[in-house]
């Protein structure tokens, strides 16, 4: 007899839960430190890190117009993906906070998270999903391209956005 189990689960999580807060801090620390090391030769100033983590509460990922998903591997929270409907076009969702802790990477979780986020966007009524990312996040750009996202013209003017992607969900 062969038993098949999956170690991955993805489920909605309140954007302000302790689990969400810990994963947001890990995400922000990693992407901020990566940018600062690349451009300035040092990690993020701790005061700036605290200020920025506190500033972006993630409230835009709350129902009814958003959702935060948490991926667990073996029951341990290891990643997030958020979706929110755009305020000016509720048929378009924006993919936010796609992140997996380093120890969970390479195990299929990123594809699972993004696919779950696409399903969540559809359930919110979206027919299209957009996202932005940076030049140095090569792995993210590779993932999005592999999952059928196409690079497009800018859809926002965010300070660190350097690449914009879209995917039809219908």
Span between termini:
40 Å
Q: Characterize the biggest β-sheet.
A: 7 strands, mixed
> Which outline best applies?
globular
CATH class: Alpha Beta
Which structural class do you get from the secondary structure elements? alpha+beta
Strand order of the largest sheet: 1-2-3-4-5-7-6
Fourth-level CATH superfamily: Gcn5-related N-acetyltransferase (GNAT)
Q: Mean pLDDT score, rounded?
A: 94
What CATH architecture would you give?
3-Layer(aba) Sandwich
Element-level helix/strand string = EHHEEEHEHEE
Structural description of this entry:
- The protein is built from 4 helices and 7 strands; from the N terminus they run E-H-H-E-E-E-H-E-H-E-E.
- It has 170 residues and is an alpha+beta fold.
- It has a single domain, classed as Aminopeptidase, CATH 3.40.630.
- A 7-stranded mixed sheet has the order 1-2-3-4-5-7-6, with helices on both faces.
- The longest helix is centred in the N-terminal third of the chain and has 22 residues.
């Amino acid at each position: 007899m062969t038993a098949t189990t999956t170690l991955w689960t993805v489920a909605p999580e309140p954007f302000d839960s302790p689990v969400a807060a810990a994963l947001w801090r890990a995400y922000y620390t990693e992407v901020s430190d990566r940018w600062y090391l690349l451009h300035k030769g040092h990690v993020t100033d701790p005061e700036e890190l605290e200020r920025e983590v506190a500033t972006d509460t993630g409230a835009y990922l709350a129902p009814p117009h958003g959702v935060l998903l948490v991926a667990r591997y073996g029951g341990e929270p290891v990643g997030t993906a958020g979706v929110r409907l755009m305020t000016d076009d509720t048929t378009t969702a924006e993919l936010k906070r796609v992140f997996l802790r380093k120890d969970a990477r390479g195990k299929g979780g990123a594809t699972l998270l993004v696919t779950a986020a696409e399903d969540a966007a559809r359930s919110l009524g979206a027919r299209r999903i957009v996202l932005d990312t940076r030049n140095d996040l090569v792995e993210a750009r590779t993932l999005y391209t592999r999952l059928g996202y196409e690079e497009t013209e800018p859809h926002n003017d965010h300070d660190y956005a350097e690449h914009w992607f879209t995917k039809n969900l219908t």
